[in-house]
Amino acid sequence: MNELNTSVLVIDDEEMVRDNIEDILDPRSISQEQYGINSAVNILFDTPATLLAPRTRNIPVFTVDKASTGMEGIQKVRQAVEAGRPYAVIFLDMRMPGINGLETAIEIRKYDLKAEIVFITAYSDCSIEEIVEQAGQNVGYHCKPYASEEIIQIATKAVTDYNKLRNLEKLIESIASIGLNHNQLNSLLKNILDQLACSLETDMALLGKLHDGFVYEKVLSIGAIEEKINLEELIARVKTMPIEKDEVIQIDELVLARMDNYSVFALLKKHEKLKTEKMYLLKLFVQNAAQAIRNAELNEKLIQKEKLSAVGQVLAMVMHDLRSPIKNIQLITGLMREDGDISEMVDLIDQSAEQASRISDDFLDFIKETKITKVSVNVNKIVTEAIKQAEAREGIEQITIIKNVPDTLVVPGDESKLRGTIINLVNNAIDVLHDRKITNGEITITARIEGKEVMLYITDNGPGIPPEISETLFEPFVTKYKTNGTGLGLSIVKQFITGHGGKIAVYNNNGATFTISLPL
Questions:
Q1: pTM
Q2: Which of 7, 322, 400, 478 reaches 20 to 30 Å from 306, CA-CA?
């Protein structure tokens, strides 16, 4: 907690009112003459002093500024904000010469959206609804005449609310600059969301992320909000609404704040319009939470890249040394043919050596991030070759591979890398179906043109992608339930597809389905 901001501005055209509120909030300002009046009241009415309420240690020490007109008050607010010492509370009369209290409040909001404004007036030409609509939600209203205890109570509550929100605001703003991993960040975000929900007077809120405009993933939540509302129905409803990405809207008791793909849903206890100040904090939380999550993701990717770089340097040397003996195999098979050995085994050795050589070259390309060179590639051909290569895998006897690929389907790309991608995905599916002992295992490979893209779908009827690795599946060293997995295969696949200007994704639907899109 920083030092409390207890700065108060009183804007009223009546000097007596201005001085009286100052005397109530800041007894240090009382003159000797006023003390004399106070004593006279005690003697005349035989009662304890009524001009001043007794001070307790729970009452803040206020500092009070005064303005006699709306224009003077606006000027003081502007100067205070520019000096970095804004007012926490502004007491404002409604009827004043020149511009009235509502017009003054509207102008004040151009310089300060955060100050608590309290209208103190005997009468008004505006309804409460008009005041709230034009001056914002963070306003209060109190009628004259007033008791000193009432002014102290109003000012104390307003200052307390203001400073709680300012401290929460600073905490929220600091999120984006803190370097944390995902677990630490989620713990921090949940703590702050709890405090924010408390400020919103709710115990139910949810922070989530919208993937590709249609899949909603929960990041964290408090309370039983998922039991109270149908998220799918709500997201569908929100998508049809003209909401900007950094806007906050309220639909009955539900509040939504959105930033990029991140959003916060909060379910209020009351069907009241949320204060502007709290709308702002909700928006601020989403903005900083989104940035903090992105920072954590970038930080973890950087660590992964550093690990991959270190491992890659060693592997690159190993692969470089392997290239010569692999390529020598093809020289040996050539010599065997010259000696008259034309058996099928020689052809198989030749094919395996060629495949091993391509894998070695592709891996070195991955390490060096070599640019893709494109030629016309027949998709049916490389799928057929991938299936043929898969026929040597253990467990293939219990698995059926179905191919739905047009004979003439052509895409620009690197044939070796696209073939390697399909081989990798098919081999992964075979391994999972075999290792998990799936009966009647089935892999379907489908390719077709959709718009300006070639779409390739590789589907299996296995257990699907484990939820705990679904978000990091294409990152290096991520593997699960594979007996011989290195965790590098899918990261290589993603780099190859991205290098082609395409995209790769995966979802579960009675098994795993990998989707690859390649531009025509």
A1: 0.48
A2: 322
Task: Write the single-letter amino acid at 106.
Answer: I
Burial (CB count within 10 angstroms: exposed 0-12, middle 13-18, buried 19+), residue 83: exposed
Region of residue 341 (left: phi > 0; alpha: psi -120 to 50; beta: else): beta
> Is 71 exposed, middle or buried (CB count within 10 Å of its CB: 0-12, 13-18, 19+)?
middle
Tell me the CA distances in angstroms from 288 to 205, 231, 260, 314, 492, one per residue in order: 16, 23, 11, 39, 32
Rounded distance between C-alpha atoms, residue 489 and residue 474, angstroms: 8
Give all strands (DSSP E) within 359-429, no chain letters.
375-378, 399-404, 410-413
HEC letters along 119-169: EEECCCCCCHHHHHHHHCCCEEEEECCCCHHHHHHHHHHHHHHHHHHHHHH
Query: 520 with 449: CB under 8 angstroms?
Result: yes
Element (H, E) at 258: strand 254-259
Distance CA(256)–CA(247), nearest Å, equals: 8
Please check whether residue 443 is in contact with residue 460, taking contact to mean a CB–CB distance below 8 angstroms.
yes
131-150 residue pLDDT tens: 766 766 667 777 878 888 88
Query: At which residue do the structure tokens 């009235």 appear?
Result: 100
Cβ–Cβ < 8 Å for 104, 138: no
Q: Which amino acid is present at 366? A: F
Contacts of 156 (CB under 8 A, 6+ apart): 58, 59, 60
Paired residues of 65 in beta bridges:
9
What is the pairing mode between strands 139-143 and 262-267?
A: unpaired
Strand partners, 408: none
How many Å from the N-terminal Cα to the C-terminal Cα in the chain?
A: 59
* β partners of residue 250: 255
26-78 confidence digits (pLDDT tens): 877 655 566 566 666 666 665 544 444 455 557 788 999 999 999 999 999 99
How far is 418 from 382, CA to CA, in rounded Å? 8
Instruction: Tell me the residue type at 156.
Output: T
